[in-house]
Amino acid sequence: MMKQIDTLVSSAAILGLFVLISLIFLLDLHGQVIIYTLLPVVSGIVGWKGAYFIYRSRHGNSHVHEVGYACMECA
Questions:
Q1: Where would you tag: which of 1, 27, 44, 74 has the fewest CB atoms within 10 A of its CB?
Q2: What tens digit of pLDDT does each residue of 20-75 get?
Q3: How does DSSP assign the chain, residue by residue?
Q4: What's the pTM value of the predicted model, to 2 decimals?
Q5: Which positions ≥6 away from 22 have C-beta within 8 Å?
């Protein structure tokens, strides 16, 4: 349970960091509409990938598979 809370806090910190970076870019670049729509989406994706990387690095090589893939140990 404690590892799940620790992972959740790490993911929230990474996502918050990228939201803060996107807000700095939004304040610096006035009048560019693509920045207002694209940067928060990109920062959300990067934050999610970072949180997933932290989760995978802390939990090691667990048996979590992508849909459609099989491993040799499970077959």
A1: 1
A2: 777 766 666 565 655 666 777 777 777 777 777 777 777 665 555 555 555 555 55
A3: -HHHHHHHHHHHHHHHHHHHHHHHHHHHSTT-HHHHHHHHHHHHHHHHHHHHHHHHHHH-S-S---TT---TTT-
A4: 0.37
A5: 39, 40, 42, 43
